[in-house]
Design brief:
Elements: E1 7-17, E2 24-38, E3 81-94
Antiparallel strand pairs: 1-2, 2-3
Length: 97
């Protein structure tokens, strides 16, 4: 069974334009979310600081299951991993007829 890096993709569409036959501008924002290294402090209860060295979140189950939120490498919840959001904005312009 192979493990994949947990990625989440969120797409938001917004369409703007006036009703007077003018040009139409449409833009879309694409956000890719990636979860990096684990930042859970395993020595917090004794007043120290120690991380386990897990470099990347790997889901231990399929999307939509409880295992999708647990890391197969370190066993921590996805919230302990550093969240990286990459945003891409695409604008399209249609000139008036």
């Amino acid at each position: 069974m192979g493990f994949e890096m947990m990625k989440k993709r969120q797409v938001v569409y917004k369409r703007e334009g006036s009703g007077r036959g003018s040009s139409t501008t449409s833009s879309s924002v694409v956000r890719n979310v990636r979860y990096g290294e684990c930042q859970k402090n395993h020595a917090a209860n004794i007043g120290g600081y120690a991380v386990d060295g897990c470099r990347e979140f790997m889901a231990s189950g399929e999307e939509g299951t409880n295992g999708a939120l647990m890391c197969a490498a370190c066993g921590c919840h996805r919230n302990f991993h550093r969240r990286e959001v990459q945003t891409e904005v695409v604008c399209e312009y249609s000139p008036p007829n």
